[in-house]
Amino acid sequence: MSIAAIGKALWVLGVVAWYLIRRPYERRAKRVQIVSHRRSLSEKVGLAAALIGLGIVPGFHVATGIPQAADYPARAWAVAIGAIAFVGAMWVFRRTHKALGRNWSITLEIRDRHELVSNGPYAFVRHPMYTSFLLMGIGQAFLLSNWVGGLAGLVGFAILFFLRVNEEERMMMETFGPQYRAYMEKTKRIIPYIY
């Protein structure tokens, strides 16, 4: 098996792991009443960009090899870095879902008896789910030796992040007020101690 094929196989395994982590929380979330939400066009565009960049474009490349003109030689060290980043992404992703519990949702929603979560990965950053998506994008860039398929994840993440994070923080401020402001002062957005 070539190094490029190993990178593609590891990417597929990472996406399967992502789905297996997400699915039970998605099913449970349907049973908890939504009190308010911020579904908007910009949020839909951000979620679509993340799906396209972290799923559809790389999946199409892995399945077909297209666009072959954007391929470059795969390197074992790059695949190793990509695998480490993807494992880190799945670890953060799992811990984030576990910490959120019944508060989790795919869209910007406040649920019945919603609580401000500040434990687990939330003790370090306000948006660890975005941290996991950033790590997935980095992992994808190293695992897939194709400029389009590899970098699509970082583009998708960036669009999601910049279209959604400010609105998410506004919603949390309106819901939790001074408690969320104090939490913001203690934590960074997605990279501990940096940003």
**Head-to-tail CA distance between termini:** 39 Å
The CATH architecture is Up-down Bundle
What is the global morphology?
elongated
SSE sequence, one letter per element: HEHHEHHH
Number of E-type strands: 2
User: What structural category characterises the helix and strand content?
Assistant: mainly alpha
What gyration radius follows from the Cα positions, in whole Å?
17 Å
Estimate the helix proportion, in percent: 55-70%
Portion of residues in beta strands equals: under 5%
- CATH topology category name: Four Helix Bundle (Hemerythrin (Met), subunit A)
Residue-averaged pLDDT: 93
The order of strands across the largest sheet is 1-2
Number of helices: 6
Q: How many domains comprise the coordinates?
A: 1
Summarize the biggest pleated sheet. Answer: 2 strands, antiparallel
- Tell me, what is the CATH class? Mainly Alpha
**Low-pLDDT residue spans:** none
Protein name: Protein-S-isoprenylcysteine O-methyltransferase Ste14
Membrane topology: Multi-pass membrane protein
Keywords: Membrane, Transmembrane, Transmembrane helix
InterPro entries: ICMT_MeTrfase, Isoprenylcys_mtase
Would you mind describing this structure in some detail?
With 195 residues, the protein is mainly α. It has a single domain (3-186), classed as Four Helix Bundle (Hemerythrin (Met), subunit A), CATH 1.20.120.1630. Helix content is 67%, strand content 4%. It contains six helices and two strands, in the order H-E-H-H-E-H-H-H. It has helices at residues 3-29, 41-64, 76-100, 128-143, 147-176, 178-186, and strands at 34-37, 109-111. The protein has a two-stranded antiparallel sheet with strand order 1-2. The model has no long low-confidence stretch (mean pLDDT 93).
